[in-house]
Protein backbone atom coordinates (compact mmCIF):
# COMPACT_ATOMS: atom_id res chain seq x y z
CA UNK A 1 0.00 0.00 0.00
CA UNK A 2 1.26 3.41 -0.76
CA UNK A 3 2.01 5.43 2.31
CA UNK A 4 -0.78 7.29 4.05
CA UNK A 5 -1.07 10.49 2.12
CA UNK A 6 -2.38 13.89 3.16
CA UNK A 7 -5.10 14.26 0.58
CA UNK A 8 -6.42 17.60 -0.54
CA UNK A 9 -10.20 17.79 -0.20
CA UNK A 10 -12.10 17.46 -3.45
CA UNK A 11 -13.75 20.61 -4.72
CA UNK A 12 -16.86 18.51 -5.28
CA UNK A 13 -19.54 20.97 -6.30
CA UNK A 14 -17.15 23.17 -8.25
CA UNK A 15 -16.66 22.68 -11.97
CA UNK A 16 -13.15 22.29 -13.44
CA UNK A 17 -11.08 25.45 -13.38
CA UNK A 18 -11.71 27.90 -16.16
CA UNK A 19 -9.43 27.34 -19.11
CA UNK A 20 -8.62 23.73 -18.18
CA UNK A 21 -8.31 21.23 -20.98
CA UNK A 22 -9.53 17.68 -20.54
CA UNK A 23 -6.73 15.13 -20.48
CA UNK A 24 -3.86 17.60 -20.02
CA UNK A 25 -2.98 19.00 -16.61
CA UNK A 26 -4.42 17.34 -13.49
CA UNK A 27 -6.18 19.92 -11.32
CA UNK A 28 -8.73 17.99 -9.30
CA UNK A 29 -7.56 15.65 -6.49
CA UNK A 30 -8.96 12.63 -8.33
CA UNK A 31 -6.99 13.61 -11.45
CA UNK A 32 -3.77 13.88 -9.46
CA UNK A 33 -4.50 10.50 -7.89
CA UNK A 34 -5.11 8.92 -11.28
CA UNK A 35 -1.66 9.85 -12.57
CA UNK A 36 0.23 9.35 -9.29
CA UNK A 37 3.22 7.01 -9.16
CA UNK A 38 1.19 4.38 -7.29
CA UNK A 39 -1.54 4.53 -9.98
CA UNK A 40 -1.07 5.08 -13.75
CA UNK A 41 2.30 6.75 -13.17
CA UNK A 42 3.68 3.50 -11.81
CA UNK A 43 4.58 2.13 -15.24
CA UNK A 44 7.07 4.93 -15.75
CA UNK A 45 8.40 5.06 -12.19
CA UNK A 46 8.71 1.30 -11.63
CA UNK A 47 9.18 -0.23 -15.06
CA UNK A 48 10.75 2.71 -16.91
CA UNK A 49 8.38 2.57 -19.85
CA UNK A 50 5.71 4.89 -21.12
CA UNK A 51 2.09 3.80 -20.82
CA UNK A 52 -0.32 6.05 -22.73
CA UNK A 53 -3.34 4.56 -20.98
CA UNK A 54 -3.05 6.92 -18.02
CA UNK A 55 -3.46 10.03 -20.16
CA UNK A 56 -6.22 8.32 -22.14
CA UNK A 57 -8.04 7.48 -18.92
CA UNK A 58 -7.56 11.03 -17.68
CA UNK A 59 -9.12 12.47 -20.85
CA UNK A 60 -12.05 10.05 -20.82
CA UNK A 61 -12.78 10.48 -17.12
CA UNK A 62 -12.49 14.26 -17.32
CA UNK A 63 -15.23 14.28 -19.94
CA UNK A 64 -17.43 12.19 -17.67
CA UNK A 65 -16.56 14.45 -14.74
CA UNK A 66 -17.55 17.55 -16.67
CA UNK A 67 -20.81 15.96 -17.80
CA UNK A 68 -21.99 15.35 -14.23
CA UNK A 69 -21.12 18.71 -12.70
CA UNK A 70 -21.91 19.92 -10.17
CA UNK A 71 -21.48 16.91 -7.89
CA UNK A 72 -23.69 17.04 -4.83
CA UNK A 73 -22.19 16.60 -1.37
CA UNK A 74 -22.94 12.84 -1.03
CA UNK A 75 -21.33 12.13 -4.41
CA UNK A 76 -18.29 14.23 -3.46
CA UNK A 77 -17.83 12.24 -0.24
CA UNK A 78 -18.20 9.01 -2.18
CA UNK A 79 -15.56 10.24 -4.62
CA UNK A 80 -13.13 10.68 -1.71
CA UNK A 81 -13.82 7.11 -0.58
CA UNK A 82 -13.13 5.78 -4.08
CA UNK A 83 -9.82 7.64 -4.16
CA UNK A 84 -8.80 6.06 -0.86
CA UNK A 85 -9.05 2.41 -1.94
CA UNK A 86 -5.93 0.62 -3.21
CA UNK A 87 -5.20 -2.94 -4.30
CA UNK A 88 -3.09 -3.62 -1.22
CA UNK A 89 -5.89 -2.84 1.24
CA UNK A 90 -6.81 -5.75 3.48
CA UNK A 91 -10.53 -5.14 2.85
CA UNK A 92 -10.19 -4.74 -0.91
CA UNK A 93 -12.94 -7.13 -1.99
CA UNK A 94 -15.42 -6.07 0.68
CA UNK A 95 -14.66 -2.40 0.00
CA UNK A 96 -15.33 -2.76 -3.73
CA UNK A 97 -18.74 -4.25 -2.96
CA UNK A 98 -19.39 -1.49 -0.41
CA UNK A 99 -18.48 1.14 -3.00
CA UNK A 100 -20.63 -0.46 -5.71
CA UNK A 101 -23.61 -0.39 -3.36
CA UNK A 102 -22.78 3.21 -2.45
CA UNK A 103 -22.58 4.20 -6.14
CA UNK A 104 -25.93 2.51 -6.69
CA UNK A 105 -27.44 4.63 -3.90
CA UNK A 106 -25.44 7.73 -4.84
CA UNK A 107 -24.56 8.01 -1.16
CA UNK A 108 -21.18 7.51 0.56
CA UNK A 109 -20.60 4.12 2.10
CA UNK A 110 -21.22 3.82 5.83
CA UNK A 111 -18.13 1.57 5.98
CA UNK A 112 -14.61 2.91 6.54
CA UNK A 113 -12.86 2.69 3.19
CA UNK A 114 -9.14 2.54 2.43
CA UNK A 115 -5.87 3.28 4.23
CA UNK A 116 -5.70 3.19 8.03
CA UNK A 117 -9.37 4.18 8.20
CA UNK A 118 -10.23 0.61 7.20
CA UNK A 119 -8.43 -1.01 10.15
CA UNK A 120 -10.82 -2.59 12.64
CA UNK A 121 -10.33 -2.84 16.39
CA UNK A 122 -9.69 -6.57 15.97
CA UNK A 123 -6.88 -5.88 13.53
CA UNK A 124 -5.40 -3.22 15.81
CA UNK A 125 -5.44 -5.74 18.66
CA UNK A 126 -3.37 -8.11 16.55
CA UNK A 127 -0.78 -5.37 15.97
CA UNK A 128 -0.73 -4.77 19.73
CA UNK A 129 -0.19 -8.50 20.27
CA UNK A 130 2.89 -8.47 18.02
CA UNK A 131 4.20 -5.37 19.75
CA UNK A 132 3.67 -6.68 23.28
CA UNK A 133 5.18 -10.09 22.47
CA UNK A 134 8.27 -8.49 20.93
CA UNK A 135 8.72 -6.04 23.79
CA UNK A 136 8.27 -8.86 26.29
CA UNK A 137 11.08 -10.82 24.59
CA UNK A 138 13.64 -8.07 25.23
CA UNK A 139 15.55 -8.57 28.53
CA UNK A 140 15.15 -6.06 31.36
CA UNK A 141 16.23 -5.61 34.95
CA UNK A 142 12.79 -5.55 36.58
CA UNK A 143 9.34 -6.93 35.65
CA UNK A 144 7.47 -5.04 32.96
CA UNK A 145 3.80 -4.82 31.99
CA UNK A 146 4.06 -6.20 28.45
CA UNK A 147 3.06 -9.73 29.50
CA UNK A 148 -0.09 -8.37 31.14
CA UNK A 149 -0.89 -6.40 27.99
CA UNK A 150 -0.32 -9.47 25.82
CA UNK A 151 -2.55 -11.62 28.02
CA UNK A 152 -5.32 -9.03 27.80
CA UNK A 153 -5.14 -9.18 24.01
CA UNK A 154 -4.15 -12.81 23.39
CA UNK A 155 -4.92 -14.97 26.45
CA UNK A 156 -2.67 -17.99 26.80
CA UNK A 157 0.89 -18.51 25.65
CA UNK A 158 0.35 -19.62 22.05
CA UNK A 159 1.06 -16.29 20.38
CA UNK A 160 3.95 -15.38 22.69
CA UNK A 161 5.53 -18.81 22.25
CA UNK A 162 5.29 -18.52 18.46
CA UNK A 163 7.12 -15.18 18.46
CA UNK A 164 9.69 -16.46 20.95
CA UNK A 165 10.26 -19.56 18.81
CA UNK A 166 10.83 -17.46 15.68
CA UNK A 167 13.33 -15.21 17.46
CA UNK A 168 15.33 -17.96 19.21
CA UNK A 169 18.16 -17.15 21.58
CA UNK A 170 18.93 -13.51 22.24
CA UNK A 171 21.90 -11.74 20.71
CA UNK A 172 22.81 -8.06 20.68
CA UNK A 173 21.98 -7.81 16.96
CA UNK A 174 18.60 -9.50 17.39
CA UNK A 175 17.72 -7.11 20.19
CA UNK A 176 18.59 -4.14 17.98
CA UNK A 177 16.44 -5.39 15.12
CA UNK A 178 13.54 -6.15 17.47
CA UNK A 179 13.81 -2.61 18.83
CA UNK A 180 13.85 -1.23 15.29
CA UNK A 181 10.78 -3.22 14.29
CA UNK A 182 8.96 -2.19 17.48
CA UNK A 183 9.57 1.44 16.53
CA UNK A 184 7.85 0.75 13.21
CA UNK A 185 4.84 -0.69 15.00
CA UNK A 186 4.76 2.21 17.45
CA UNK A 187 4.39 4.62 14.54
CA UNK A 188 1.27 2.86 13.26
CA UNK A 189 -0.14 2.30 16.75
CA UNK A 190 0.32 6.02 17.42
CA UNK A 191 -1.81 6.99 14.45
CA UNK A 192 0.83 8.26 12.06
CA UNK A 193 1.87 11.38 14.06
CA UNK A 194 2.48 14.61 12.11
CA UNK A 195 6.04 14.98 10.80
CA UNK A 196 6.71 18.10 12.91
CA UNK A 197 5.22 16.72 16.13
CA UNK A 198 7.23 16.16 19.30
CA UNK A 199 6.36 12.46 19.10
CA UNK A 200 7.87 12.12 15.61
CA UNK A 201 10.98 14.06 16.60
CA UNK A 202 11.53 11.62 19.46
CA UNK A 203 10.70 8.69 17.19
CA UNK A 204 13.14 9.78 14.50
CA UNK A 205 15.90 10.27 17.06
CA UNK A 206 15.33 6.74 18.40
CA UNK A 207 15.33 5.30 14.87
CA UNK A 208 18.60 7.05 14.03
CA UNK A 209 20.24 5.73 17.20
CA UNK A 210 19.15 2.13 16.59
CA UNK A 211 20.07 2.25 12.90
CA UNK A 212 23.56 3.47 13.82
CA UNK A 213 24.04 0.49 16.16
CA UNK A 214 22.71 -1.95 13.55
CA UNK A 215 25.16 -0.54 11.03
CA UNK A 216 28.04 -1.46 13.35
CA UNK A 217 26.96 -5.09 13.74
CA UNK A 218 25.32 -5.75 10.38
CA UNK A 219 26.79 -3.30 7.83
CA UNK A 220 25.66 -5.48 4.91
CA UNK A 221 22.09 -5.60 6.25
CA UNK A 222 22.03 -9.36 5.91
CA UNK A 223 19.23 -9.72 8.47
CA UNK A 224 16.79 -7.21 7.00
CA UNK A 225 17.54 -5.02 3.96
CA UNK A 226 17.43 -1.34 4.74
CA UNK A 227 14.55 -0.86 2.29
CA UNK A 228 12.33 -3.18 4.33
CA UNK A 229 12.30 -0.86 7.34
CA UNK A 230 12.88 2.39 5.48
CA UNK A 231 10.40 5.06 6.55
CA UNK A 232 9.19 2.51 9.12
CA UNK A 233 7.97 0.23 6.35
CA UNK A 234 5.62 2.91 5.06
CA UNK A 235 2.74 1.33 3.19
CA UNK A 236 4.01 -2.23 3.34
CA UNK A 237 3.93 -2.64 7.13
CA UNK A 238 0.86 -0.57 7.85
CA UNK A 239 -1.98 -2.63 9.39
CA UNK A 240 -4.20 -1.75 6.43
CA UNK A 241 -1.94 -3.72 4.07
CA UNK A 242 -3.31 -7.16 3.22
CA UNK A 243 0.14 -8.73 3.69
CA UNK A 244 1.05 -6.82 6.86
CA UNK A 245 1.05 -9.80 9.24
CA UNK A 246 2.82 -12.05 6.73
CA UNK A 247 5.53 -9.39 6.53
CA UNK A 248 5.68 -9.11 10.32
CA UNK A 249 6.38 -12.84 10.49
CA UNK A 250 8.92 -12.54 7.68
CA UNK A 251 10.85 -9.84 9.52
CA UNK A 252 10.70 -11.60 12.88
CA UNK A 253 11.74 -14.99 11.47
CA UNK A 254 14.61 -13.34 9.56
CA UNK A 255 15.80 -11.72 12.78
CA UNK A 256 15.70 -15.10 14.47
CA UNK A 257 17.55 -16.83 11.63
CA UNK A 258 20.10 -14.05 11.28
CA UNK A 259 19.50 -13.82 7.52
CA UNK A 260 16.79 -12.31 5.37
CA UNK A 261 14.22 -14.88 4.18
CA UNK A 262 16.24 -17.75 5.64
CA UNK A 263 13.14 -19.11 7.39
CA UNK A 264 10.44 -17.93 4.98
CA UNK A 265 11.01 -17.99 1.22
CA UNK A 266 9.45 -15.67 -1.32
CA UNK A 267 5.89 -16.39 -2.44
CA UNK A 268 6.21 -15.76 -6.16
CA UNK A 269 2.59 -15.88 -7.24
CA UNK A 270 0.99 -13.46 -4.78
CA UNK A 271 0.75 -10.65 -7.33
CA UNK A 272 -0.83 -12.89 -9.95
CA UNK A 273 -3.39 -14.22 -7.50
CA UNK A 274 -4.23 -10.71 -6.30
CA UNK A 275 -4.62 -9.49 -9.89
CA UNK A 276 -6.91 -12.40 -10.78
CA UNK A 277 -9.08 -11.79 -7.72
CA UNK A 278 -9.37 -8.12 -8.53
CA UNK A 279 -10.34 -8.85 -12.13
CA UNK A 280 -13.42 -10.76 -11.01
CA UNK A 281 -14.61 -7.50 -9.40
CA UNK A 282 -13.46 -4.98 -12.00
CA UNK A 283 -14.70 -6.81 -15.12
CA UNK A 284 -18.44 -6.63 -14.27
CA UNK A 285 -18.12 -2.97 -13.22
CA UNK A 286 -16.41 -2.18 -16.49
CA UNK A 287 -19.11 -4.00 -18.46
CA UNK A 288 -21.75 -2.05 -16.56
CA UNK A 289 -20.11 1.25 -17.53
CA UNK A 290 -20.33 0.09 -21.15
CA UNK A 291 -24.05 -0.61 -20.84
CA UNK A 292 -23.57 -4.38 -20.91
CA UNK A 293 -25.04 -6.90 -18.50
CA UNK A 294 -23.63 -10.25 -17.45
CA UNK A 295 -26.39 -12.66 -16.50
CA UNK A 296 -24.44 -15.93 -16.84
CA UNK A 297 -22.29 -15.13 -13.79
CA UNK A 298 -24.12 -14.79 -10.47
CA UNK A 299 -21.31 -12.84 -8.83
CA UNK A 300 -21.00 -10.40 -11.73
CA UNK A 301 -24.77 -10.00 -11.81
CA UNK A 302 -24.71 -9.22 -8.09
CA UNK A 303 -22.18 -6.42 -8.61
CA UNK A 304 -24.16 -4.95 -11.48
CA UNK A 305 -27.35 -5.12 -9.43
CA UNK A 306 -25.62 -3.15 -6.66
CA UNK A 307 -24.72 -0.44 -9.18
CA UNK A 308 -28.33 -0.18 -10.35
CA UNK A 309 -29.48 1.92 -13.26
CA UNK A 310 -26.72 4.11 -14.74
CA UNK A 311 -26.65 7.89 -14.80
CA UNK A 312 -23.84 10.33 -15.53
CA UNK A 313 -22.64 10.65 -11.95
CA UNK A 314 -22.67 6.91 -11.34
CA UNK A 315 -20.87 6.26 -14.64
CA UNK A 316 -18.11 8.67 -13.63
CA UNK A 317 -17.72 7.19 -10.14
CA UNK A 318 -17.76 3.57 -11.32
CA UNK A 319 -15.34 4.30 -14.18
CA UNK A 320 -12.98 6.08 -11.79
CA UNK A 321 -13.08 3.14 -9.37
CA UNK A 322 -11.99 0.77 -12.14
CA UNK A 323 -9.36 3.13 -13.52
CA UNK A 324 -7.71 3.76 -10.15
CA UNK A 325 -7.36 0.05 -9.38
CA UNK A 326 -6.48 -1.17 -12.88
CA UNK A 327 -2.86 0.11 -12.99
CA UNK A 328 -2.16 -1.41 -9.59
CA UNK A 329 -3.54 -4.72 -10.83
CA UNK A 330 -1.32 -4.60 -13.93
CA UNK A 331 1.74 -3.70 -11.85
CA UNK A 332 1.11 -6.50 -9.34
CA UNK A 333 0.91 -9.08 -12.14
CA UNK A 334 4.00 -7.78 -13.94
CA UNK A 335 6.09 -7.69 -10.77
CA UNK A 336 5.09 -11.27 -9.95
CA UNK A 337 6.02 -12.45 -13.45
CA UNK A 338 9.39 -10.72 -13.31
CA UNK A 339 10.18 -12.22 -9.91
CA UNK A 340 9.25 -15.69 -11.11
CA UNK A 341 11.41 -15.30 -14.20
CA UNK A 342 14.39 -13.93 -12.27
CA UNK A 343 14.29 -16.77 -9.77
CA UNK A 344 13.74 -19.50 -12.31
Structural description of this entry:
With 344 residues, the protein is mostly helical. The chain has two domains: 39-118 and 269-342, no CATH class; 121-257, no CATH class. It is built from 15 helices and no strands. The radius of gyration is 23 Å and the shape is elongated. It starts with 28 loop residues before the first helix and ends with a helix.
Order of SSEs:
HHHHHHHHHHHHHHH
Structural class: mainly alpha
Average pLDDT, all residues = 88
Give the termini distance in whole angstroms.
27 Å
Helix content: 55-70%
Query: Rg from C-alpha positions?
Result: 23 Å
Total number of helices? 15
- What assembly state would you assign to the polypeptide chains in this entry? single chain
Number of domains: 2
Shape: elongated
Number-wise, the strands total 0
- Note the main sheet: none
List low-confidence stretches. Answer: 2-23
Q: Strand share of the residues?
A: under 5%
Layout of secondary structure:
Blueprint: H1 29-34, H2 42-47, H3 53-67, H4 73-84, H5 92-105, H6 121-137, H7 146-153, H8 158-167, H9 172-189, H10 198-217, H11 226-229, H12 244-257, H13 270-289, H14 298-307, H15 312-342
Helix pairs in contact: 3-15, 4-15, 5-13, 5-14, 5-15, 6-7, 6-8, 6-9, 8-12, 9-10, 9-12, 13-14, 13-15
Amino acid sequence: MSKAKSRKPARGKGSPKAGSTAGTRPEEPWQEELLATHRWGRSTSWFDKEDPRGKQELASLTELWQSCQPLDEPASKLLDQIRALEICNWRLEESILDLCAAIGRRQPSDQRIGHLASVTDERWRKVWAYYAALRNWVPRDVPAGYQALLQAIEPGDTFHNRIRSMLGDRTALKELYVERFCLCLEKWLSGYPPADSVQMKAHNAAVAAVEAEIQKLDPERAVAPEAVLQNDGDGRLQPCNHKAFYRYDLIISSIGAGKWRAAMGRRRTDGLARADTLESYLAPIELWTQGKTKTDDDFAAKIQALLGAPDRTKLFLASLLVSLLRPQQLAAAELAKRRAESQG
